[in-house]
Amino acid sequence: VQLIESGGGSLQAGGSLRLSCATSGRTWDTYALGWFRPAPGKERELVAGINSEGTSTSYAASAKGRFTISRDNHQNTMYLQMNNLKPEDTAVYFCNAGRVGISGDYQPRNFWGQGTQVTVQS
Prior knowledge:
Blueprint: E1 2-6, E2 9-12, E3 17-24, E4 32-39, E5 42-50, E6 57-59, E7 67-72, E8 77-82, E9 91-100, E10 106-112, E11 116-121
Parallel strand pairs: 2-11
Antiparallel strand pairs: 1-3, 3-8, 4-5, 4-9, 5-6, 7-8, 9-10, 9-11
């Protein structure tokens, strides 16, 4: 599975961005997909995840109500719509392909994109 992010940029607080993750590979549409960013005390934290069918999503508490994850399996692309951005959202955002565990948690696999920078100025 190959993943390529795009859509990052620099903007003022309160603005919106839409990140894209273009995917390829024979079995990419069997994977759950997620957006990650670095976090204090851990290498990366899950911002939002979506199952392979696009019917179930999960969000970090910091993203709920502001971010929306979606995927278009016909276009081989996943999206993260980010609204009302805050300076603390500043980070490199990474796309990941993974699985959904028995308890419904997103479990990343070692498929990562190169990241796209989001910078939010106050």
